[in-house]
Automatic annotation (TrEMBL):
Keyword ATP-binding carried by entry: yes
Record key words, sorted: ATP-binding, Magnesium, Metal-binding, mRNA processing, Nucleotide-binding, Nucleus, Transferase
Name the UniProt record assigns to this protein: polynucleotide adenylyltransferase
Organism: Deinandra increscens subsp. villosa
Reaction equations catalysed: RNA(n) + ATP = RNA(n)-3'-adenine ribonucleotide + diphosphate
Keyword rRNA processing recorded: no
GO molecular function term, any single one: poly(A) RNA polymerase activity
Length: 692
């Protein structure tokens, strides 16, 4: 699976739905910069050791043997004759970052178990197989999630994290040479099986549709690391996950089939800076198929029209892999693409290093207003379940805020969570808040999102597996009130002196020389003074009316905000990459940029969705639907009692402005005045004569 030229065809078809933008090969400069990039990624600790790679292979081999023993047990229990028992088979496939070859040290392995028709998912997979695994001494951290959209069993085998899905085929015997890329494999398959098979089928198809697998892998590894450093790697938070970034990178590889990773990274930012969303990114044409499964098609499916950033999977049935993206998160990613493009262009002109591109985003310096979501539980298992549920609901809060403020208030969800070591069963999520760029400052304008937050609480409160001790609190805080445990070492960084916009741009350019490269690819953010807050920090007059909301904490005993962070950010010494000054050829860079810009515009005009007038005119209102909340679920307030939530919208009562937001709890129903949460983006400097 080595290097392939663009003209290498599969089944008589070219790679990609359009002609490439450029067939040009690498220059000497590209070779040197690609070597620098690969060294940078290695120094950042993104590659596993040879010993770990061998351990993973051994674990996968053992898992394959385990499921083969399991399926024979199931066959015997089903009363099949001994010949069928001996022929019974199950097979393990991999997908995700491991299958793509871009996983890092300590990463989990996404696996799929394919079994025969008589091996049931609920009784046999989550029953008998789970029991077998729990009996093994080297299996730990078992966490089955049978009710997930794609049911999964999570555990560790010999210290290696495994995410195991199950696909039940309509075959009596699973052949060892089973090819799951064939569409016929989906015949008579249930919905969960189709979804479970999708990961493997998409991953394999991506590898078939890129012209050079090695260049694709290096570029994807680079972009995954960049996205994590810039805080835009999280499907659940409304950004993009691993499969999304893989599809975006694969499309760039198709458009520049002979380019090395240095050029592919640069062109990634160039193309997606110009991309006119919601034009879809597709690696191949969408096939109707013969099995009648629903495919992504905004002309037929009303919900598909509201997808803001469609990135379409290449395997049947084609789906939009990025339906979680909201207006706010799309704007954030668009700004990041533009930043990456500007840095890459400057690198060409000044022969700069890769450091600046990977500079971490300073989330807790970027905004003046934040929402803090605190959750607690009574033990590890409850916390794991409660945390997963709340985390999956946060993107709905973003959509609800956009809806209720007519998209004038933008939300930036942090993709991670933060924990205080002194409170092991507590963690916090944060959302940055900012008036949308271009919305005029209106002294009388206030964003009242109290009912929005109440609706979010009601949605979270509908959790069917709720247990006593599971609690949540949502409060508005200012930047100066961010708890210390979110910062490395629990130490709040010193605020830099206020500088002009020109000064910020100068600082951002010079900051590259002081960047630490994290040893862990899971580090999303390293907080500290940074002029990188640029546009998202542009509203210096943005502030909040004095203490409209007070954070009194959760009702759970022993909870407090403060202390040392549970999240430890490992850094290594500053990595400098020496580059020799290269003599630039008398290439007309301006002319090249113009020609590529025109080629990208042509891609937009060839998009099958460009002429759809109703495409992406709003947010899918399904996102704002709240399930009825059981009568036992109440919203409590420490100062004023409680009031019941019955799924209906209560009338607002005249509240005190300085009471805290309600806490979610399961308690006795009583009457209560409702607190207000109103974000005022009026300049405090103008109102009080003081600077913030």
């Amino acid at each position: 699976m080595g290097s392939q030229g663009f003209n290498n065809q599969k089944n008589g078809q070219r790679l990609g739905i359009t002609e490439p933008i450029s067939l040009g090969g690498p220059s000497e400069y590209d070779v040197i910069k690609t070597d620098e990039l690969e060294k940078f990624l290695a120094d950042a600790g993104l590659y596993e050791s040879h010993e770990e790679a061998i351990s993973r292979e051994e674990v996968l081999g053992r898992l394959d043997q385990i499921v083969k023993i399991w399926v024979k047990r199931v066959s015997r229990a089903r009363g099949l004759n001994e010949q069928l028992v001996q022929e019974a088979n199950a097979k393990i496939f991999t997908f995700g970052s491991y299958r793509l070859g871009v996983h890092g040290p300590g990463a989990d392995i996404d696996t799929l178990c394919v079994g025969p028709r008589h091996a049931d998912r609920d009784e046999d997979f989550f029953g008998e197989l789970k029991k077998m695994l729990l009996e093994m001494p080297d299996v730990t951290d078992m966490h089955p999630v049978p009710d997930a959209h794609v049911p999964v069993m999570k555990f560790k085998l010999s210290g290696i994290s495994i995410d195991l899905l199950y696909a039940r085929l309509s075959l009596w015997v699973i052949p060892d040479d089973l090819d799951i890329s064939q569409d016929s494999i989906l015949q008579n398959a249930d919905e969960k099986t189709v979804l479970s098979l999708n990961g493997c089928r998409v991953t394999d198809q991506i590898l078939r549709l890129v012209p050079n697998i090695q260049s694709f892998r290096t570029t994807l590894r680079c972009m995954r690391f960049w996205a994590k450093r810039r805080g835009v790697y999280s499907n659940v938070a409304g950004f993009l996950g691993g499969i999304n970034w893989a599809l975006l990178v694969a499309r760039i590889c198709q458009l520049y089939p002979n380019a090395l990773p240095n050029m592919l990274v640069s062109r990634f930012f160039r193309v997606y800076t110009q991309w006119r969303w919601p034009n879809p990114v597709m690696l191949c044409a969408i096939e109707e198929g013969s099995l009648g499964l629903q495919i992504w098609d905004p002309r037929r499916n009303p919900k598909d029209k509201y997808h803001l950033m469609p990135i379409i999977t290449p395997a049947y049935p084609s789906m939009n892999s990025s339906y979680n993206v909201s207006s706010s998160t799309l704007q954030i990613m668009t700004e990041e693409f533009k930043r990456g493009h500007d840095i890459c262009e400057a690198m060409v002109l000044s022969n700069g290093s890769w450091l600046e591109l990977f500079e971490p985003y300073r989330f807790f310096e970027a905004y003046k207003n934040y929402l803090q979501i605190d959750i607690v539980a009574e033990n590890d298992e409850d916390m794991l379940n409660w945390k997963g549920w709340v985390e999956s609901r946060i993107r709905y809060l973003v959509l609800k805020i956009e809806r209720d403020t007519s998209k004038m208030l933008q939300c930036h969800p942090h993709p991670g969570d933060f924990s205080d070591k002194s409170n092991p069963f507590h963690c916090s999520y944060f959302l940055g808040l900012q008036r949308k760029e271009g919305v005029p400052v209106n002294e009388a304008k206030k964003f009242d999102i109290r009912l929005t937050v109440d609706e979010f609480k009601a949605n979270v409160g509908s959790y069917s597996s709720w247990k006593p001790g599971m609690d949540m609190n949502v409060t508005h805080i200012k930047r100066r009130d961010i708890p210390a445990f979110v910062f490395p070492g629990g130490i709040r960084p010193t605020r830099p002196a206020r500088v002009s916009l020109e000064g910020r741009q100068t600082l951002e350019t010079s900051a590259a020389g002081s960047v630490d490269v994290a040893t862990s690819v899971d580090v999303n953010v390293v907080d500290g003074p940074d002029a990188d807050t640029r546009k998202r920090k542009r509203d210096d007059d943005t502030s909040i009316a004095p203490e409209l909301v007070r954070n009194d904490g959760l009702s759970t005993d022993g909870f407090s905000v403060g202390g040392v962070t549970h999240m430890r950010v490992n850094v290594v010494d500053q990595v400098g990459i020496k580059t020799e000054i290269l003599d630039q050829n008398n290439e007309d860079i301006s002319g090249q940029l113009t020609s590529e810009k025109l080629a990208i515009e042509k891609l937009m005009s060839e998009s099958p969705q460009e002429d759809d007038n109703n495409f992406a005119k709003g947010i899918d209102m399904e996102f704002s639907t709240v399930k009825p909340v059981p009568s036992s679920v109440t919203i409590s307030n420490n100062n004023t009692g409680t009031f019941s939530v019955n799924g209906n919208l209560e009338e607002l009562e005249a509240p005190e402005l300085d009471v805290p937001l309600p806490n979610l709890s399961h308690a006795t129903v009583a009457s209560q005045k409702k607190p207000i949460m109103r974000l005022s983006f009026t300049s405090l400097a103008k109102a009080t004569g003081n600077s913030t």
